Amino acid sequence: MDATVITQQEDLANLRNVPKSPRCSTSENLLNLNIKEHYEIIKELGRGTYGKVVLGRCKETGTQVALKVLPKTNVKLREFQREFDLSYFLSPHSNIVDTYNVAFETKSSFVFAQEFAPVGDLFDKITPQQGMSEKDAKCVIRQIASALDFMHSKKLVHRDIKPENVLIFDHEFSKVKLMDFGMTRKDGTVIRKVNGSIPYTPPEICEAVRNESITVSTSCDIWAFGVLLFCMLTGNFPWENADISDVYYNEFTLWQRRKSTKLPSQWKKFTPRLMRLFRKILDPKGERRCEIKEICKYLNDSWIQPCKNSDNEEEDMASGSDHMDELSNILQNHGIETHMDKACARTQNIGMVTVIIAYIIILHYSLFPFHLINSHKLYTNRKMLT
Ligand SMILES: Nc1ncnc2c1ncn2[C@@H]1O[C@H](COP(=O)(O)OP(=O)(O)O)[C@@H](O)[C@H]1O
Ligand SMILES: [Mg+2]
């Protein structure tokens, strides 16, 4: 055999041994690779319901990436492709995590690469039973609202809004991104209920039984967004389940539907203006819930009552205007028509209004003596949230 033939054979053999780069593998052309040949695995970043995310350094480029590793035992190829394709499609938005055009499979898992968020997820930034500062919460909310508005404009529903799915890039919260599109579906898709309920699940999904058909709607994200906002500002969940058997939920719904004037104690730290927004977001009827754009109208308002203690068991001290709304509602519910000039009433009739409110409160509690004591539960365990 002459020398040139030997060299060609060696070249061919070498070529076969050279591992192909993950950077030339996409979901349509999924290469089977060994993860450790291409990435130095630095640490585990987190775990979710279906898989784990690790920090890896690409040996070819030196870049650090977050690799989402989904075991084939938990996720089918079609499901993996859907999550990867949606994540990649949504990437251009500045508040959605960047997904690189890199996807491959190993013997046991499907893998794709995303940008690495050095500060981690929002869950760890919410101090239990305390929450975050109003300023930081607004900063995060503004960015998540923008990401959700973008998704909803594309008729996509995230379906898993919670702090674990929000990534933080700096300690000032100036760069915050939404991620985890594993549950994302097109608005209007009919699916079967498979998962149990978590505190972020809207009432219409909570009440569906396992395997019942449910229609995916952007209003589900609005609800979860409202619960997320409450968690961020208090460090607690408003309830365990959005079901009337849950006393905290039931008490809130009575207030939300104006069946009761009593604002449950865990909501009393918020201003009437924020409560107005909560009333629109956390409407038990999905079709009546506001759209994500509505939230932006409230970002310049004050959200937390200046010197009010959340443990205060006094009656709600909402503004005169809100009391008027409540009062007129109650009177109307009792068949009494009211045509009040709010501005005039505020200045001239405060005394009389206070007497009427006191009378109604006494009447209310004599009719409904069961007062719910709000010893609010604290969840410090991340697993309880998922
Ligand atoms: N790009 C990333 N940078 C830093 N941490 C991440 C990143 N992606 C995910 N994580 C961490 O891993 C956890 C699980 O990731 P996620 O994609 O939500 O998986 P699952 O679909 O299983 O819930 C997240 O809650 C977060 O703590
Ligand atoms: Mg997740």
From TrEMBL:
Per the UniProt record, which residue ranges are transmembrane?
A: 350-373
InterPro entries, per this entry? Answer: Kinase-like_dom_sf (IPR011009), Prot_kinase_dom (IPR000719), Protein_kinase_ATP_BS (IPR017441), Ser/Thr_kinase_AS (IPR008271)
As one GO molecular function, the record gives: ATP binding
SUPFAM superfamilies attached here? Protein kinase-like (PK-like) (SSF56112)
Source species of the chain: Pinctada imbricata (Atlantic pearl-oyster)
Keyword Transferase belongs to the record? yes
Please name the Gene3D superfamilies in this protein's record. Answer: Transferase(Phosphotransferase) domain 1 (1.10.510.10)
What protein does this entry describe?
A: Protein kinase domain-containing protein
Q: Name one Pfam family in it.
A: Pkinase
Sequence ranges assigned to domain Protein kinase in this UniProt record: 39-304
Family under the similarity heading: Belongs to the protein kinase superfamily.
UniProt keyword annotations, A-Z: ATP-binding, Kinase, Membrane, Nucleotide-binding, Serine/threonine-protein kinase, Transferase, Transmembrane, Transmembrane helix
Binding-site residues for ATP, renumbered to this chain: K68
